[in-house]
């Protein structure tokens, strides 16, 4: 069997005070005919990164509304995750070397995992490229039951996918009953499937990462990491990855320092188990930091978990998400939900979340990121008003309940297809 991820307990009713009126009732109505449906989510990691963050809430809420939902992760190896990280990079547009050796390393692991996939499921949702080919290799096995609907959920931006790598993956993807993308723009034109859906991710407003936190608590957490709460604070929360441009963030911050010499920067990024490049980019970022005590480079290694991220996002005067490519960027909604304005790279899912000039700014360069950050630091009232607009945008569009509802609708549609 694949490794099961321990699940939290969540209750949909607890979201009633946060979400739009009528939401809970609509979800319960949609869930009633699906009561007892067996739903399995499979991804590559139980910790670190947006997919793990999403599934922790989504699977727990699915159980609360009567689905028999489960979450399992594939077994990898350093070599396998090295290859799948190149796949991730290639599918986001990087020029990587893709060889028959890469294909072999990838497929051998997927076959091993396919052999471990067990149980009887009505819906199997496979997340991202790491386990994508598993659909092919379960054929003829007990888990491949006639009525099961197989769904591939792609969280990354394929707009500029490396053709060689996408040509390898496309035939595996086309074996699914449905593919789900964050935005219509991400769907490759060559993809031929009957059911292609668009469904942006969401944040959990009552998770430890997003729950309200008293200001004194926020200050104390910041102090415990050496961050001085009274100084202008700029925060980016991201894995250490070139697409998140941490070095660009440092360069933008240095421009901001010319006008705000006491400003501090927090770069917080967890090390995901399926991201072998993390340590390398941590070191490159640390080199760029050049020992500057006003730049705080933090990660789960220094016990930065959900509560600390919550505090840093709340303490920020401006949140940056200077990604060059971004599937969605949960960190943007997380910050907006806390009433902070976000200066984000004009990339993928960030453009769904930031309404330019309303709840933050979309930027195309380090200089622009710096200029917008300076503008917000100079105008704290404007920053607060933008943050408030952002919280409302997130409430309407990017909370867990909306995503849950979208998935239930998709299951309904698929249950009517042969
Ligand atoms: N995150 C975290 N600790 C960190 C860095 C990131 O908990 O040190 C979380 C972050 O708050 C967000 C998720 O990891 O919930 C990252 O998701 P996102 O969609 O922004 O990016 P991804 O890593 O999936 O590319």
What report would you give on this structure?
There is one protein chain. This protein is an alpha/beta fold. It folds into 2 domains: 3-202 and 399-415, Rossmann fold (3-Layer(aba) Sandwich); 215-397, Glycogen Phosphorylase B (Rossmann fold), CATH 3.40.50. The chain contains 15 helices and 13 strands. The strands form 2 sheets. It has a 7-stranded mixed β-sheet, with helices on one face. Strands 10-9-8-11-12-13 form a 6-stranded parallel β-sheet, with helices on both faces. Strand 4 (123-127), helix 5 (134-137) and strand 5 form a beta-alpha-beta unit. The longest helix is centred in the C-terminal third of the chain and has 18 residues, at 380-397. The radius of gyration is 21 Å and the shape is globular. The mean pLDDT is 96. Uridine-5'-diphosphate is lined by residues 49-50, 53, 209, 237, 239, 268-270, 299-300, 304, 306, 309, 328-331, 334.
State Rg: 21 Å
* CATH homologous superfamily classification of the largest domain: Glycogen Phosphorylase B
Approximate shape:
globular
Query: Which structural class is indicated by helix and strand composition?
Result: alpha/beta
| Sheet with the most strands: spatial strand order | 1-3-2-4-5-6-7
Q: Give, in order, the helices and strands.
A: EHEHEHHEHEHEEHEHEHEHEHEHEHHH
Q: What is the CATH top level name of the largest domain?
A: Alpha Beta
Question: Which spans have pLDDT < 50 for at least 5 consecutive residues?
Answer: none
Catalogue the ligands. Answer: uridine-5'-diphosphate
Number of domains: 2
CATH topology of the largest domain: Rossmann fold
Number of helices: 15
**What would the average pLDDT be, to the nearest integer?**
96
The biggest beta sheet is recorded as: 7 strands, mixed
How far apart are the first and last residues' alpha carbons, in Å?
A: 28 Å
Helix content: 40-55%
Q: Tell me which CATH architecture of the largest domain applies here.
A: 3-Layer(aba) Sandwich
Strand tally is: 13
Strand portion, in percent?
A: 5-15%
